[in-house]
Specification:
Blueprint: H1 2-14, E1 28-29, H2 40-52, E2 57-62, E3 65-71, E4 79-80, H3 84-99, H4 126-130, H5 152-158, H6 173-187, H7 191-203, E5 209-210, E6 224-226, H8 228-239, E7 243-244, E8 247-248, H9 252-258, E9 274-277, E10 280-284, H10 286-294, H11 299-307, E11 310-312, H12 315-326, H13 330-338, E12 347-350, E13 353-360, E14 364-369, E15 374-379, H14 396-401
Antiparallel strand pairs: 1-3, 2-3, 2-15, 4-6, 5-6, 7-8, 9-13, 10-11, 10-12, 13-14, 14-15
């Protein structure tokens, strides 16, 4: 299962989108809209789409109150949140910052691991692990290096640098896993224990599981198993700017920093949180083509990219152009070619930030729209029948946005 998950993650996260095929009606558990501003029609559309995409759980909160919980297998149960775990790791760091147990994310990692106090590695700070600019050698497929490794913290520590720290954004599971080691060095306790003591218990999260390597390190890139209603509590904590039942668990300034563009290169990414913008344009122009050609991409692939040149204002048109250029299996063709090289197919131009999201492989989501006081969670279990073209529910953030109209 690990190999399948990791090898398809790059494609699913960045590219997969398709209209769902109705195969089952959703089995609702919970209650309906509790606020006049909630659109029942839009909510029904969301629930239907979640059911058609074989979701396991859907939870919607408005103004901190439960609009509804839907469990399509009949009951709530813990489900691995995949890369949503990264965003929870951000909250753990924020909690430790608030408690004064981590002084600054600009502190060099060498403070915790003196073996890094040499060469360019001494310049790598915790911030670089959080914003994907550490420069550590990166293999996007986790099944190649990470899952086979008995100690993912040591794997990250031993990695060579492919770029100077802070210079290039590259989504890096290996670097993120090192955060678990930093947390243990800073607190003397494993990350999963710190999560339980400092966040889960105050939020009333009674049970969770966290996948670990053979050395006992919890993965920071993925592996946290939670029930959807508990994941929604963490989303609500973010919506509340770190406040929970009158207590400021996470300083508001931490969330303000985390939920703003962390780099110029990837303007829709904060510190292990993704930003939802009101507009996104996908651009394939001569500059993009030239970058691909100089980045080791095969000439035959570049020629297909040239045929898709243009500016696309929505994903449907963009994905349609890619399918025309690369054929029916365009997602696999693009992912298999570009993932090992760590290059992007297009340049993205973003508008105003209107919300935040945590994303995970398969289509795990926390979506937060602060202006609407809206939080939604979708989880899906992995299975042999999972279809990335229909079950990723990639339009989940847009469907959630329609539930409550902005004031």
């Amino acid at each position: 299962m690990k190999a399948t998950r990791a090898s398809r993650a790059f494609v699913v996260m960045l590219l997969a989108a398709s209209a769902p095929v109705v195969t089952a009606a959703p089995a609702a558990a919970g209650h309906g809209p509790s606020d006049a501003h909630v659109s029942k029609a839009a909510l029904d559309q969301l629930v239907q789409a979640a059911g058609e995409a074989h979701s396991s759980a859907l939870v919607v909160l408005h103004k901190g109150e439960t609009v509804g919980e839907w469990y399509f297998g009949g009951k709530s149960k813990p489900i691995e949140t995949m890369s949503v775990t990264k965003s929870i790791v951000n909250l753990i760091i924020g909690r430790l910052r608030t408690l004064g147990r981590i002084d600054s994310i600009d502190t060099p990692v060498a403070k915790y691991y003196p073996e890094w106090n040499q060469g360019q590695k001494k310049e790598i700070a915790l911030r670089h692990l959080l914003n994907h600019t550490s420069g550590l050698q990166n293999v996007p497929r986790a099944d190649i290096e990470i899952y086979p490794s008995p100690d993912v913290v040591q794997l990250a520590l031993a990695a060579e640098l492919s770029d100077p720290p802070g210079e290039r954004w590259s989504y890096n599971n290996k670097a993120v896993n090192l955060i678990a080691g930093v947390i243990k060095k800073a607190t003397g306790k494993p990350m999963d224990v710190i999560f339980r003591e400092t966040l889960a218990e105050p939020l009333g999260i009674k049970s969770f599981e966290w996948m670990k390597d053979k050395a006992g390190n919890p993965y920071a890139m993925a592996g946290l198993q939670l029930q959807a209603r508990d994941l929604a509590k963490l989303g609500q904590l973010v919506a509340n700017r770190g406040r929970w039942k009158g207590v400021q668990l996470i300083d508001e300034s931490w969330l303000a920093e985390s939920l703003a563009p962390a780099t110029k290169q990837q303007a829709n990414c904060g510190l292990l949180w993704w930003l939802i913008c009101d507009t996104t344009r996908f651009v394939i122009d001569d500059a993009v083509v030239a970058k691909l050609a100089s980045g080791g991409v095969p000439e035959s692939f570049v020629e297909k990219v040239k045929s898709a040149r243009g500016t696309y204002s929505d994903r449907k048109a963009y994905f349609g152009a890619l399918q025309t250029a690369f054929g029916t299996n365009w997602q696999e063709a693009i992912g298999e070619t570009l993932a090992p090289l760590g290059v992007q197919l297009s340049r993205k131009e973003y508008g105003k930030v209107i919300g935040y999201r945590a994303d995970g492989y398969l289509g795990q989501y926390i979506v937060i729209y602060p202006d609407q006081e809206l939080v939604a969670v979708r989880l899906i279990e992995n299975s042999d029948s999972y279809n990335p073209k229909t079950d990723g529910l990639t339009n989940f953030p847009e469907l959630v946005r329609q539930i409550v109209k902005s004031p």
